């Protein structure tokens, strides 16, 4: 299992890093669109859309990406799309995690059907807009989520005692979440202090918001990375599956890899708007 996981990770990095570092923005956008469409397919499967439903949903998501981009005029930041996605995560995200409405409720499934299209389109636009700000910027944005996840894992293993959401994800603890937050703060402070790899998300937030509000903004982004992770865990639990799919051997599905990014990306771009 570990060998499979490592091999898959190496292949993913061998594709993602060169495209991110060296390819034009258009090629980067095409790669992210490919990822997002597969994530949409998995989202539909978690909603238990039968038959060809997941494939149709993925096609709808692909059409939404094209429709939300002004062809021939470059990629622009669609602020209303970011706002719609942010509203979903800020209001609906925590609400449904507390209420945990069942997928058997038709209105709830219909709501997630529509919300998913907005969420995935906003995710794509946010990543492309971040890449247009520079390679260090998009990598620092991704790094925030990766650091929060890695820090939470090791902190939870070492100190975890108080469950964060036992009914949704029994392995997550408050100590782990706090540890992930601390790792993000330490790395962000070091990057800003050393003036490394400019421009980054951290330096951009500091220049625009000041020190105190940057601290609050980063805290909010870390918190919503946890919300995204828990939200997908809730969908998987209700669907009765361990992973969103088996597309990535050893890692589960695409959605399992990007769930924490989904709320963070549009929120981060709005904070800098």
Automatic annotation (TrEMBL):
Which spans are transmembrane here?
6-39, 46-68, 80-98, 110-128, 134-155, 176-197, 203-227
Q: Does the keyword Lipid metabolism apply?
A: yes
Instruction: Identify the keywords attached in UniProt to this record, alphabetized.
Output: Cell membrane, Lipid biosynthesis, Lipid metabolism, Membrane, Nucleotidyltransferase, Phospholipid biosynthesis, Phospholipid metabolism, Transferase, Transmembrane, Transmembrane helix
Residues annotated as signal peptide? none
An example of a GO molecular function for this protein is: phosphatidate cytidylyltransferase activity
Localization in the cell: Cell membrane
Q: What are its E.C. numbers?
A: 2.7.7.41
Q: Is-annotated flag, keyword Metal-binding? A: no
Query: Which reaction does this chain catalyze?
Result: a 1,2-diacyl-sn-glycero-3-phosphate + CTP + H(+) = a CDP-1,2-diacyl-sn-glycerol + diphosphate
Its membrane topology: Multi-pass membrane protein
**Where does this protein act, in terms of pathway?**
Phospholipid metabolism; CDP-diacylglycerol biosynthesis; CDP-diacylglycerol from sn-glycerol 3-phosphate: step 3/3; Lipid metabolism
GO biological process terms, semicolon-separated: CDP-diacylglycerol biosynthetic process
Q: What is this protein called?
A: Phosphatidate cytidylyltransferase
């Amino acid at each position: 299992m570990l060998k499979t996981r490592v091999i898959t990770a190496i292949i993913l990095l061998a594709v993602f890093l060169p495209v991110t570092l060296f390819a034009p923005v258009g090629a980067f956008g095409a790669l992210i669109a490919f990822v997002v469409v597969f994530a949409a397919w998995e989202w539909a499967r978690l909603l238990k859309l039968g038959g060809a439903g997941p494939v149709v949903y993925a096609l709808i998501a692909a059409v939404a990406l094209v429709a939300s981009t002004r062809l021939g005029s470059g990629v622009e930041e669609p602020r209303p799309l970011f706002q719609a996605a942010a509203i979903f995560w800020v209001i609906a995200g925590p609400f449904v995690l507390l209420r945990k409405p069942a997928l058997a409720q038709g209105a709830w499934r219909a709501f997630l059907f529509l919300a998913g299209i907005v969420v995935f389109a906003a995710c794509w636009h946010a990543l492309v807009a971040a890449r247009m700000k520079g390679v260090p910027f998009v990598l620092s944005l991704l790094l925030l989520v990766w650091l929060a996840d890695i820090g939470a894992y090791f902190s939870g293993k070492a100190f975890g005692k108080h469950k964060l959401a036992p009914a949704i994800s029994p392995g997550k603890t408050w100590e782990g979440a706090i540890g992930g937050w601390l790792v993000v703060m330490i790395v962000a402070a070091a990057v800003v202090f050393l003036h490394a790899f400019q421009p980054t998300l951290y330096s951009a937030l500091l220049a625009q918001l000041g020190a105190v509000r940057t601290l609050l903004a980063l805290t909010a982004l870390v918190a919503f990375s946890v919300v995204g992770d828990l939200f997908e865990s809730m969908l998987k639990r209700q669907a009765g599956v361990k992973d969103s799919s088996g597309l990535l051997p050893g890692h589960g599905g695409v959605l399992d890899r990007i769930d924490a990014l989904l709320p963070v990306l549009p929120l981060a771009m709005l904070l800098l708007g």
